[in-house]
Amino acid sequence: TLEYLIKENKNIIAVITPDTDDDWYKGVDEIAKKYNIDLYQNNNINTDQFIDKIKNMNPDLIVSVNFNQIIGKEIIDIPDKGCINIHASLLPKYRGRAPLNWAIINGEKKTGVTVHFMDEGIDTGDIILQEEITIKNSDYIKDILKKVKDKYPIMINEAINLIKNDNYKIISQNKEDGSYYGQRTPEDGNIDWNQSAKDIYNLIRAVSHPYPGAFTFLDDKKVMIWKAKVIDKNKPKAKQGEVIK
Description:
Helix content: 25-40%
Radius of gyration: 21 Å
Largest sheet: 4 strands, mixed
Order of helices and strands: HEHEHEHEEHEEHEHEE
């Protein structure tokens, strides 16, 4: 997304990333260095010192893309044009963390991408743009991530253009509507064999590569399950969780 905006001639005055070795955040720093853009790596942007630094930058707009910190009101109020965020769900549904994983786990047939203004809530600001993405029964999380990744740069760039030209219509979210979901951990991939085959299949799809994966134990040995399918009920019968040949 950052490189796309640069190639679309957006005047990016600074890039802020977390100071971490987490693979999810690698690459943004490399793009900033490649194009000689000021780079700040900070794990707490809401300190008085860093807020003053952002004020001195005098940005027209702040864009958040998968940022791992809550951006406080003092920062949100700095740019004249506001702050925008992109979220991988059809807000107000699936606010919060891991929206794509949760959507697959819950057997949703569609998800989407939303660009919205930021406010003091979590994913509750006015919507600028929104596009749907179909979730096929055969889709794994990597497939949905690819669809989302393709939309991010284009939608962010379009939103910036609309805001620059004051040519947008917002959709207000009803803060009571929708749903919130929390962060997931690798341990959440532990399969509960008391669930239905469909639910287990959805979990496997939702946490497969590039996530830590679904797992179970066989003779006290941890077994990872990256792919699966639901077989016909008339196939060989077995107890739930039983391994058959």
